[in-house]
Known about the structure:
Elements: H1 2-6, H2 34-61, E1 69-71, E2 74-77, E3 80-83, H3 84-93, E4 112-121, E5 128-140, H4 145-164, E6 170-171, E7 175-176, E8 194-201, H5 222-234, H6 245-254
Parallel strand pairs: 5-8
Antiparallel strand pairs: 1-2, 2-3, 4-5, 6-7
Amino acid sequence: MACELLGLPFETAVMKFGDTASASFDIGSHASRTLYSVSNVISEAAKPLKEDILSFAANHLKVPQESLSIKDGIISGSGKEISIKELATIAHSYGHQFLSSACRVPPNSLPWYAQAAEVEVDMELGLVKVIKVAAAHDVGKVINPALCEGQIEGGVAQGVGYATREEMTYEEGKGFYNDGFHKYMLPTADDICEIESIFVESNDPKGVFGIKGIGECGVNPTLPAIFSAVEDATGVRFEVAPLTPGRVLEGLKKAGKI
């Protein structure tokens, strides 16, 4: 994003990690808004940085600053041009560095999502099998399609576990029964259902390039979608997760379904 905003080739960028001891306070990269919040502050920092670069270039090239633009690492305008690399070398010889910092708390930008689940319920054993989840998410503009799809699939996978398998059981005087992954039943690759990820692109005016967040949004609707599918299949609305066989059979018996 920084390269796109400044007009530089991505291949020339080098990531420098910051230090919380020297950086300004910010609200953090929580609530599915890492890309959203970071890109906002990048955009804020890019403006004075680009202005500084063009101002120095205009003075060096002896042309009006407003005639200059940057594209693919080349500054051009009024019949003249110079590369960013060459300009940076010249600036360095004059003791000038192109630096910019910014701190910004971005406005809130809400994502929207809807999921539907297809399930099979074994009425004799109480087993709930999730066959498919269709997950539609409004993420603004998709920046990295593969990563975005991975976020949705990971969220759905966690949601399937949350809805059907994962549970912490406490035994009085003994502590938690689920003291390891051999007892805490995370879904494995064999347990994950078919997932159809659907990007619903919009253009959020508060996000750089119209983006929103995705993160936790992938898991939020999965459990209610599965529970609604189970209700549709059995006629019983369950209120407690996960849908273990014992819990399902107990609910079916109370409802007079078996």
